[in-house]
Specification:
Blueprint (H helix, E strand, L loop, with lengths): L8 H12 L8 E5 L4 H5 L2 E7 L17 E7 L2 E7 L10 H4 L1 H9 L3 E10 L9 E9 H4 L26 H14 L5 E8 L8 H10 L3 E3 L3 H9 L3 E11 L12 H25 L21
Parallel strand pairs: 1-4, 1-5, 5-9, 6-7, 7-8
Antiparallel strand pairs: 2-3, 3-4, 5-8, 6-9
The structure holds hypoxanthine.
The site of hypoxanthine has 13 residues, from strand 5, strand 8 and strand 9.
């Protein structure tokens, strides 16, 4: 059982208040930058940054390629907060720690969470360098009983039994697809199902085949747990995976994935993902939860 007493509202409040006392920025949009995708955070205007190690109660990031900083600043003139580096279960953190920042973001006033990650392709039609808008996820750890919401429910964040059938906001997904079209990205922007596994090892061939048969198009070691906590506390969520490798499903294949290769592709394609997220953030106003998201889609021409 995880030490759920550490996942208290008061602890999250303490961290949020510490940050609110040190920045005047009041972001409504948060972005989690996955492996090698830190340049997105660096593109914020008028940035104010806080190292994770200086933020009370925050875990520290231990993986190379995952720098640990929370950055406040503007993207397309909108106040945003970026997590440059995230936490993973394979680093040894319990899931309540992996997802602790999400609840802090909620208490900072964030309403919309944009999540990025690096992922391996299971779908045969995907290529390295593709972007996959996450339509839905398979939280393999959660299905097996390892869920960040285990333990007494904190009603101040959300209900005991949150629904997840609409986890990835359909209006933002449609807006992102339209934005990809306007950027000329349609040929390599897909939509699919992401599966979160624990890692740190990459998948065996039998595991890759299993995940594919289960309906996953891409696999990675993050995101689903964060999204569960984000949806529990009512954040709107958009997720996108950068496909950094094809996951081998064939015993005769010679190539093998490694973290270095994953980071290399992330760095090479970071600017593409950055351009899509930046343009999407610029258009998010046109996509409120109560009204259609595509209204000004036809008039959007600049900003790319
Ligand atoms: N498997 C799991 N996680 C990953 C992969 C992969 O192939 N690529 C990037 N993250």
């Amino acid at each position: 059982m995880q030490p759920t007493e550490n996942f208290s509202f008061e602890l999250c409040r303490e961290t949020a208040d510490w940050l609110l006392a040190r920045t005047r920025q009041r972001p409504r949009i948060a972005i989690i930058c996955g492996s090698g995708l830190g340049p997105l955070a660096d593109s914020l205007k008028n940035p104010e940054s806080f190292k994770y190690m200086d933020i009370p109660n925050f875990p520290h990031s231990t993986v190379s390629g995952h720098e640990g900083q929370l950055l406040f600043g503007e993207l397309q003139g909108k106040p945003c907060v970026c997590m440059k580096g995230r936490f993973h279960m394979y680093e040894g953190y319990p899931l309540w720690k992996v997802t602790f920042p999400i609840r802090v973001l909620k208490l900072l006033g964030v309403e919309t969470l944009l999540v990025t990650n690096a992922a391996g392709a299971l779908a045969d039609s995907y290529s390295v360098g593709d972007l996959m808008i996450i339509r839905d996820h398979i939280n393999l750890l959660g299905l097996a009983g390892l869920n960040p919401l285990l333990g007494p429910n904190e009603e101040r964040f959300g209900p005991r039994f949150p629904a997840l059938s609409d986890a990835y906001d359909s209006q933002i997904r449609a807006l992102a697809m339209d934005t990809a079209r306007l950027l000329g990205y349609s040929s390599f922007v897909k939509e699919g199902v992401y599966c979160m596994v624990g890692g740190p090892n990459f998948e065996s061939i039998a595991e890759a085949r299993l995940l594919h048969v289960l309906g996953a198009d891409a696999v990675g070691m993050s995101t689903a747990a964060e999204v569960v906590v984000a949806r529990h506390c009512g954040l709107r969520v958009f997720g996108i995976s950068l496909i950094t490798n094809k996951v081998t499903k064939d015993y005769s294949a010679k190539e093998n994935v490694d973290h270095h290769g994953v980071l290399e592709v992330s760095r090479r394609r970071a600017s593409t993902l950055q351009a899509l997220i930046t343009a999407l953030v610029g258009r998010l106003d046109s996509c409120s939860s109560s009204s259609g998201g595509q209204k000004d889609g036809e008039t959007y021409q600049n900003g790319v």
